[in-house]
Amino acid sequence: MNLKPNSVLQGGKYKIEKVLGQGGFGITYMATQVALQRKVAIKEFFMKSLCNRDQETSQVSVGSAGSVEMVERFRQKFVKEALNIAEFNHPNIIRIYDVFEENDTAYYVMEYIDSGSLSSFGKISEQKAVRYIRQVADALAYIHSRSINHLDIKPANILLNDLDNAVLIDFGLSKRYDSEGHQTSTTPVGISHGYAPVEQYKQGGVGTFSPSTDIYALGATFYKLLTGEVPPDANEIFDDGLPPLPQDISEASRKAIIAAMQPQRKNRPQSVEAFLKLLDAVPAEAGVAADSEATELVSGNYADDTESDDEATAKRKRKFIFGGIAAVVVLAVVLLATTFAGGGESEEIVVNDTITNVVNYDFVNANGIRFTYTGAVNADTVPNGEGVGIYAEGTYKGHYINGLRDGNGNYVTTNGANTFEGVYHNDEYSEGKLSSTEGWVYEGTYLQNNFHNGTITIDNTKYPVTNGQY
User: For residue range 134-175, what is the model confidence (pLDDT) as tens digits?
Assistant: First the structure.
């Protein structure tokens, strides 16, 4: 589905050489800028789960009419990303040479860096890690001074050029804020697990400008370079603290990571400058062992070793909430297993103190929808209770009230393209998960069968949906 080698763009200005990589939203190519005879990287907007390409003409189209609006939103975000980066002039930020539209999609041209990213490394020396982190921090200070948060700092988004210097890339999730610190758009927020702080998991959590959000991810990247391991998710750190850090790193690096990765924003360094001050004491020689006091800081609060009453209460509430969710999930599994378990004698369903079941019953409900029903009915022979309904467009297995899907159930379209698991109300989606074979999953609430408030996941990246907008 990618452009073929030797394909040309912009009337022959660029010639495609090969594919460098593909993500959920785009394909990156190595190409030649013909007039200057230099290698460049070209990123093409192409949502692999939703877009198609004519192999003869290279034109890009959207496979489903229902996805056209979504794809256009992300295409506009893609162009905005390019224009944002093109404004920058910093040695540790990727340079953009050109932005254009062609083949019914969008492209931008950037400098070609072929030395790989920090994600290709395991554990590296402390001095080398500090050098890279300082360079990325300098790039962040530059964009923060322009009221922009990157929001996706991680090793895979940090390339190394031929001088072994770090270069920050991929501003696809970045947000620009106005003079009062409010976001200038409601574009989606993605999550890179292990690197995104707690606030990025919340709707509206990054609605105001906060350098400490990027500082958390910078600390998490530092953690990865010094341990060789992806950090735990922010929610795990909130409850359990960081795992022990290697004993052979300096106390300065240890404290910098702990401070940057504090779950609560207010307890992190509030600027890149404040974070860098913590690194000033990193020794010139590697292998400075940490003392026992530093080790105790790993699971504590860097700003204050004692846990406040509010924090303790919050932690208990989180454990209670997650415990409650777990209990509900277990209960749901038990109910489903009881209701739909096969084998042995068929289970009778009690409705209004009577036992009434029908098989392959042709029924038209109050909304005028006809379906074939097997399951419990009331005294008026109306589907009421647990049952299975076969509709023209799909099959539903779950709870009915007076002939309408109402309660827990699951629904699969006839062609298998969409699957819903959750709660119905008055024959419409109410709350639950809708999965598509086109590669996206929505979880949340619905209004008249349309997305309302929740999250949509595309290629392992989550984006918030608020009042139907995403």
Answer: 999 999 999 999 999 999 999 999 999 999 999 999 887 888
Query: Bridge partners of 454?
Result: 444, 465
Q: Which of the residues 104, 152, 309, 380 is marked catalytic? A: 152
Cα distance between residue 51 and residue 38, in whole Å: 30
Closest CA to 72 of 84, 83, 60: 60
**Which one of 2.60.40, 2.40.300, 2.20.110, 1.10.3470 gives the CATH number of domain 342-465?**
2.20.110
pLDDT at 448: 85
Residue pair 257/219 in contact (Cβ under 8 Å)? The answer is yes
Architecture of domain 118-305: Orthogonal Bundle (1.10)
CA–CA separation, 149 vs 39, rounded Å?
29
Q: Which CATH class is domain 8-111?
A: alpha beta
Instruction: Check: pTM over 0.85? Answer yes or no.
Output: no
Rg (CA), the chain: 27
Whether 304 is catalytic is: no
Residue 204: C-alpha distances to residues 310, 317, 468 (Å): 22, 21, 14
